[in-house]
Structure formats: structure tokens, C-alpha cells
């Protein structure tokens, strides 16, 4: 019998969330972002769950090639562009769009005779200060790309630093859009600005924010980049990390639990041992009180998370026993809530799912 820990991927929820993204930004085409192994869901599952997306966006050329080999025929986009001239041949061979964010990438394209047409996304740095040309240098970069034979469409692209907060005190969406419009003034081409945060803000921003392509990631996986809950946005969980109770201990007042003996029982209590630890991707720094479901009832993590196990308070669970079902996140327990308790974000929890965890597929709400 396999260890009871598994991650069930809900392809039905992935389809649902993609449809939500479409209804938020109905006039834009959608890049389903499948970087980082589709946020831990598996690249190939990303391609199936987002089969209705207009394109898929990711980081590595070899994974873009893999998507072609899996039969993905629509556009593909490399969000960080090429890392080496050798990648350029693959762009036209496999029909992959590439971001162009620095002058070195422009030069690589200039020096290489393109054997076929290549579409690029020229990235503007509108304040994130990670990748891209600053607005004042953007038109010149655009002109250099335009002059390269073989470069076909140039999409104008930027990325929001604080899309989850409309009125961010340092750099709100509106300010980034203003800078983008300034830098892109007079340039032809489609526009691509919004990540999930932008897509979820589209209704509020209305015509202030206009995209030909949007690039949602996290919302497609049923989590949110901001303070509102996934449920408020009608997004559904796409990954349920579930396990079981594999041991039970009865504690008396003063007994402690786990490494470091950091949890001390204040009175008699029942502790359940769950088959899931930090080597599975559960955050070791999750504190006492991080929510966990046992037999569908909410209870709390106690003690330190260890490599293969963690301990939970079974006192509120009526008939808990070895074998009782545990949900660490997903169906019935939003990943954002667990992440928040652990001082991180849903993105990190999904991406950190360890290779040793068995991955299953199943509809949301159905037992795996
Ligand atoms: C990761 C990424 C996205 C998706 O971001 P979410 O916050 O997950 O929606 C969009 N655009 C770019 C350039 C990215 O790197």
C-alpha cells in the first residue's frame, strides 16, 4: 500500500478558472502561464487543463519544445526570452514566441540570420526593475527589432509589481500603465500587460487598462495574488494535498510534541501524526495553529513540521483514528489560507510540491 500522501490535480477546476479569467478580460487572448511545472501541477496537465487557452507561457525552451511534442499547436511564449544564441534556431523551428527584455537579446537576434519568421514580446520596465527596457529606451529597442529581417510581430509587454493593490502607495497599476503608454506611444503592435492581479482588477480599471493578451498564472490554479479570497473571485482549487493520520498519541498537561519540544499540552489532548512533512513540500516554518482538515473538520497544526510527518490537534475531531483523512490544502481548505498562516504565498506552496509526492487526477469534490 502506498504512503497515504497524494496531490490530486483537478483539471475541471483548471478549466473553470480559465473560463473565469476569460470572463474577467473578455476581449483579450489568454496566455495560460505554465512555468515552474505548471505551478507544481505538471506541465502536461497544464496543457490539458488549459487546452482552451490561446497560448501557453513558460520559461525554458526545452519545455516549450516538450509542449510541441505533446501536441500543443497554439502559440508558446518564453517569458524571459532566450538565454543563448543557440535558442534562436528553436524559436522558428518550433514556432515559439520570445520575450526580448535586454539589449543583449536584441544583439543576439541581430547577429543571427533568422531562417524563418519569429514573433517577439518586447518588454518594458515600468517600475518593477527586474526585466525590460525603461520607457525612454523602449522605442529605440523597438526600432532595432523592427529592422531585423525575420522578426514578424512585436507585442508590447510589461509586468505589474503590485497588481493586487490598486492604490499601492509606491507603484500602483495605474502608474505603471501610465509609464507603459508613454514608452509605447506611437508604436504599433498588440499589448500585453496583465498578470492575474491585473486580470482580477480589469473590471475596476475598465478602459484605463487594455490588453490584447493577458498572462494569468496563479488565478488559473485557484489562488489569488492579493487579500481577497479565491472564493470571492469564484476560483476553484486545482490541487488538493491530502494524507491520513498514521499515529495517535494521548498527551497529559505538560507533555511536549516533536523536535525542539516547542508545543506543550496545557491539559489532556489527543495528537494525530500526519504522513506529510517538509520533504513533501509542506512549509517547515508553518507555526502552531496553521489550519488542517481532519475528516473534514478544521483543526490546527501543533509542534514543528518534521521531514516526513507533522502533528495536529485531534481534540476537536470526534471519531479520529489511524486512517482518518487529512487535507493539507485544496478542497475545503484554501491554499492561500495555509500559505498566509505560514508567512508565504500560495504560489510557493504549489511550486514546492516535492517529486516524491504521488500525483493523481480527479474532479474537485470527489474522493481521490
Ligand atoms: C509569472 C508571470 C506571470 C503570471 O503571474 P501570476 O501572478 O501568477 O498571474 C505573468 N507574466 C509574467 C511575465 C510572469 O513571469
TrEMBL record:
| Record keyword NAD present | no
Protein known as: Alanine racemase
GO CC list: cytosol
Gene behind the chain: alr
Name the reaction it catalyses.
Answer: L-alanine = D-alanine
Q: Which UniProt keywords apply?
A: Isomerase, Pyridoxal phosphate
Q: Indicate the family of this protein.
A: Belongs to the alanine racemase family.
What is the purpose of this protein?
Answer: Catalyzes the interconversion of L-alanine and D-alanine. May also act on other amino acids.
